[in-house]
Amino acid sequence: EDQVTQSPEALRLQEGESSSLNCSYTVSGLRGLFWYRQDPGKGPEFLFTLYSAGEEKEKERLKATLTKKESFLHITAPKPEDSATYLCAVRPKTYSGNTGKLIFGQGTTLQVKP
Amino acid sequence: EPEVTQTPSHQVTQMGQEVILRCVPISNHLYFYWYRQILGQKVEFLVSFYNNEISEKSEIFDDQFSVERPDGSNFTLKIRSTKLEDSAMYFCASNRDGSTDTQYFGPGTRLTVL
Questions:
Q1: Are B81 and B18 in contact (CB under 8 A)?
Q2: Mutation test of the interface with chain A: which of B7, B9, B103, choosing the one with the most A Cβ atoms within 10 A?
Q3: Is residue A101 a contact partner of residue B56, using CB atoms and an 8 Å limit?
Q4: Counting one residue from A and one from B, how many pairs have CB atoms under 8 Å apart?
Q5: Which positions in chain B touch A100 (Cβ < 8 Å)?
Q6: Residue B97: closest CA among chain A residues belongs to which residue?
């Protein structure tokens, strides 16, 4: 069964304290791994797409990496405005064709204190 | 920058009533999706839609649910007879190529069933 697990569930950091969020996945063929940011009461906001092991993407203080079993979202010197829930999602290959369905993890809620 | 929009932002209804949630996907996108997120839980896939037909649906998407693209811009989700457990945030998403492209999400409609 296709599955995505994120850890930790919650993370508190001091401003400037770097850390990493983990996304472990089990999927029958990967057609993309996605990171989204979600603020309370809002829709997921796209951050990164990764397609193959070894791939890395970077944007401001965030860097996403991908291996065959997991992805990491590294946050360097975070600021309070980085506080949000970070969602990981995978798009599996399906026998019914490329329908694009995403399977989400439960998210990591990050709080950055000044 | 083009965005996915959704209306209404909040819908309150009585159990057993029909509701229609509306979405305007990004204009050059061809694949459309509905997801839901029950409070405190994962984002869950409901249905994908392409070329005026359903591509894939989840177990959640039973006979009470239907989707439609009534014109060139709107994409709707109808729940025929709402239940208490339908209370959730409903997100619409779209992309150009279902198999490889990033999905962009709308801000969501909060459905409350009393």
A1: yes
A2: B103
A3: yes
A4: 70
A5: 31, 33, 48, 55, 95, 98-99, 101, 103
A6: A100
pLDDT tens for chain B, residues 1 to 114: 789 999 999 999 999 999 999 999 999 899 999 999 999 999 999 999 999 999 999 999 999 999 999 888 899 999 999 999 999 999 999 998 877 789 999 999 999 999
Tokens of A49: 């797409």
CB contact under 8 A, B103 and A34: yes
* Closest chain B residue to A90, measured at CA: B102
Alpha carbon distance B26, B103 (integer Å): 10
Rounded CA separation A53/A80 (Å)? 31
With CA atoms as reference, report the closest residue to B92 among B53, B37, B12: B37
Does the N-terminal peptide bond of residue B8 adopt cis geometry, omega within 30 degrees of 0? Answer: yes
Cα B5 vs. chain centroid, distance in angstroms?
Answer: 11
**Alpha-carbon distances, residue B98 vs A13, A77, B13, B46 (angstroms):** 37, 35, 33, 15
Task: Give the Cβ contact number of residue B43 at 10 Å.
Answer: 25
- Residue B60 is classified by DSSP as T
Say which residues have a Cβ less than 8 Å from residue A36's Cβ, sequence separation at least 6: A44, A45, A46, A47, A86, A87, A88, A89, B105
For residue A49, the chain B residue with the least C-alpha distance is B102
Cα distance from B89 to chain A (closest Cα, Å)?
8
